[in-house]
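Protein in question reproduced for absentees:

***
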Amino acid sequence: MKINGIGIIKKEQAMSILTKEGRQAVQSGDITLDELGQMYKLEMVKRSSKIGDMPDTFRQCYKWIPDKLKDELTPADLANLTDQFYDCYSNGKAGK
């Protein structure tokens, strides 16, 4: 399967991030391959981000990235942008 910003990966690789129920949802068609690709890419962004293990903080920073960029950029680039938004917020809050 092809994922923008990542390239071509095996479907099994993308499915490795899912729970058993998630894999069943892909097999039954409840989750499309496009949705699976988006979920996989987001997981790769979280793994690359310094705040990826802080779900609420990550989500609040990641939401500021325009959807077009989320589609085009690599997970590493998206993680960097997310971390930069976090740093800007943290520095502003600290009065720096």
User: Anything to note?
Assistant: Helices lie at 11-15, 20-28, 33-48, 55-62, 67-72, 75-93.
